[in-house]
Amino acid sequence: MRAAVLVLCLYGLEALACPTCVGPRLGDSSAGDVQVQASVRSTVGSDRVTGVERLEWANELGAGLIGSRFTAGVGLPYLWRRVGDGDATAFGDLTARGSAELVRRESPDSSDTLRLLAGLGLPTSRGSAAWRTTLGTQSVTPSLGLGFRHSDQDWALSAVAWGALPFALPNAPVAFGPSFGTGAAAEYEPWRWLRLKLALDLKQQLAAREGGWALPESQFFVMFLGGDVRVQPVRWLAATAGIVVPLVCVSPGGYEHGRIYRLGVELTL
Asked: 257 and 1 in contact (C-beta within 8 Å)?
C-alpha cells in the first residue's frame, strides 16, 4: 500500500487586509483566466504486511493548469521506503490528472457542479520483483471518476466516486489489482486566508499477483477519516498540512493500513 499526498505554502499578508469581506464561492471559479500552478507535496505513511512494517516517504513535484471549467496536471514522486531492515529509493509512477465540467448550476450566492475526472499512471522503472518492496506499479493505469460539488460563500460540500484499472507491463513480475472508491468532504473558510477540510473516504483494493499467484495480503478495504488545514496568505502561494487516519481496515491476508501525514506547497501564477 502506498502512502501518498501533501501540500506546503507560506509568506505574505495580502489576504489579511479584509478577512471579513464577502468573497467568491468557496473553491469555485466560474470565470477568469487560465492559471499555471506548481507544487511540492510530501507524504509520510506506514502499513504492516504479514507482520512486517513498511514506512514510506514520498516527495512529488507537480505542475498543471487551472481553468474555469477544467484542470490538467502531471506529477512525479520520488520515493523512499523501508521494509524491515532494508530500504530503497526510486521514482514512482508518472501521473497525469485532469477534470472537465459537465454540468453547472449557478445562483448569486452558490453553485453546483458535476465534473468528469480522469487520470493516467505510467511506470518509470521495472521496480522490484516482490510486491512488498516494489516502489512502482509496473503498470499503465487509467482511472475514471465523477465528482459533485456544492459551493457557497464560505463553505462547500463535495462527493466523488472513482475506479482505476492497472495493465501490467509485459513480463512484469508484479501485476497490481484494480481499485475503486468513493468519498465525501466538507470545507469551511472562516477567513479568506484559512480553509479547513474534513473528509471521509472508502477504498477497495483488489489483490495483486506475483509470479501469477494472487496475494491475499495485498487486498484490503479501508475507511479513512482525514483533515486538512490550508493557509493562503497571498494569492500566489498556499500551504496545506493534514493527517489521514484509517478507521476500518479489512484484509483477507491481514494487511494493516497506518496513518498518513501530508504537507505541501503550491505556487500559482
From this structure: yes
